């Protein structure tokens, strides 16, 4: 008798059904045990790739390090068991452990080996570390022969330095993920006993062209004045190595950026979309301190001409010192010790 398509042999059907049930059972058991036994690093890896995807799709931010630099310090993730394809992913893995709104960062520095030829079996190793003092990172080695790339991550309330002047203190939040070379230079200034020669020498107020929030007034010119204060961050007697161009976002009110490769720098009093993305931004002044910058911009000036551009130069330069500012956690610990 010819069979219809749904008329199977009973014995063969039973065997097939049992085989199918057995395969499904094995897959379920495999899935359960894979989840329970999966290393924590894979979970972190997934989070990193998710964050990276969001960043590439316009989520903002950056993740950079300094080449030929090896930072030391206690490891919170061992690179021998934790590997990535790029320093960017290693940096993001550290960020994942420093993204909370409360408590200290579990990771504040990372070290990655990304040169296949030099790294050999160490290629891809990502060491996540916790510094004893993130503003004075423990440096193991540096130079052309060092195969590692290292970077810092500052959590909420961390990485703030003070530009002290007679007119008040400008608290600056540093951006090591976007401008690591610049930030390492600023941190080096903290180790000096003085910053003689560091000062502001140019002051351009907002005039009638930008409002108090830094927004440009419709149909107004873009200067002069140019809504910024400019100075130099180079102690007298110290050699300065030009800083490579790093992250150049649109300049906004409070941006702290280099003029060229430094050591000349400026603090913007306005949102300067007309300047395009031409300057490396290595920090930002806390909003509550912009009144100090405005005060300096309002000091007496004289007119000068720089490269055929009329500028306003301070009659008396304003000296500044770069100081370490205590984080909220450090202040709490200091208060506890006094009690």
Secondary structure layout plus pairing:
Layout (H helix, E strand, L loop, with lengths): L9 H28 L2 H20 L6 E2 L1 E3 L3 E3 L9 H10 L12 E5 L2 H4 L6 E4 L9 E4 L5 E5 L7 E6 L2 E7 L5 H11 L8 E6 L23 E5 L22 E4 L5 E5 L12 E5 L4 H8 L3 E6 L2 E11 L1 E4 L3 H11 L1
Antiparallel strand pairs: 1-7, 2-6, 3-5, 4-5, 4-7, 8-9, 8-17, 9-14, 10-11, 10-16, 11-13, 12-13, 12-14, 15-16
The percentage of residues in β strands lies in 25-35%
Rg, Cα atoms, Å: 28 Å
Number of strands: 17
Largest sheet: 10 strands, antiparallel
Estimate the mean pLDDT confidence: 82
Oligomer: single chain
Q: What gap, in angstroms, lies between the N and C termini? A: 98 Å
Shape: elongated
- The number of helical runs is 7
Q: What is the structural class?
A: alpha+beta
Give the strand line-up of the largest sheet.
Answer: 15-16-10-11-13-12-14-9-8-17
Query: Which series of helices and strands comes N to C?
Result: HHEEEHEHEEEEEHEEEEEHEEEH
The unreliable regions are: 1-21, 26-60, 328-339
- Helical coverage, percent range: 25-40%
């Amino acid at each position: 008798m010819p069979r219809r398509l749904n008329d199977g042999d009973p014995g063969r059907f039973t065997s097939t059904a049992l085989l199918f049930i057995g395969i499904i059972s094995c897959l379920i058991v495999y899935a359960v045990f894979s989840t329970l036994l999966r290393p924590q690093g894979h979970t972190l890896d997934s989070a990193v790739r998710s964050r990276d995807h969001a960043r590439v799709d316009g989520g903002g931010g950056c993740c950079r390090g300094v080449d030929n630099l090896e930072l030391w310090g206690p490891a919170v993730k061992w690179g021998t068991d934790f590997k990535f394809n790029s320093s960017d992913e290693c940096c993001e893995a550290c960020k994942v452990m420093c993204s909370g709104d409360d408590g200290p960062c579990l990771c504040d520095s990372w070290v990655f080996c990304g040169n296949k030829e030099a790294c050999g079996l160490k290629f891809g190793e990502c060491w996540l570390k916790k510094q004893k003092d993130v503003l004075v990172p423990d440096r193991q080695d540096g130079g052309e022969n060092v195969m590692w790339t290292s970077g810092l991550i500052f959590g909420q309330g961390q990485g703030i330095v003070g530009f002290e002047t007679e007119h008040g203190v400008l608290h600056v939040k540093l951006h090591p993920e976007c401008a690591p070379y610049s930030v390492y230079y600023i941190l080096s200034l903290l180790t000096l006993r003085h910053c003689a020669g560091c000062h502001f020498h140019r002051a351009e107020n907002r005039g009638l062209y930008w409002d108090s929030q830094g927004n440009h007034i419709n149909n107004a010119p873009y200067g002069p004045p140019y809504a910024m204060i400019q100075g130099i961050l180079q102690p007298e007697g110290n050699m300065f190595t030009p800083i490579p161009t790093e992250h150049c976002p649109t300049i906004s009110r409070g941006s702290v950026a280099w003029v060229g490769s430094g050591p000349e720098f400026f603090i913007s009093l306005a949102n300067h979309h007309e300047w395009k993305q031409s300057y490396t931004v290595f920090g930002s002044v806390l909003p509550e301190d912009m009144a100090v910058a405005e005060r300096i911009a309002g000091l007496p000036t004289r007119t000068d001409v720089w490269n055929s551009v009329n500028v306003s130069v301070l009659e008396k330069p304003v000296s500044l010192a770069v100081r370490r500012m205590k984080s909220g956690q450090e202040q709490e610990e200091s208060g506890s010790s006094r009690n």
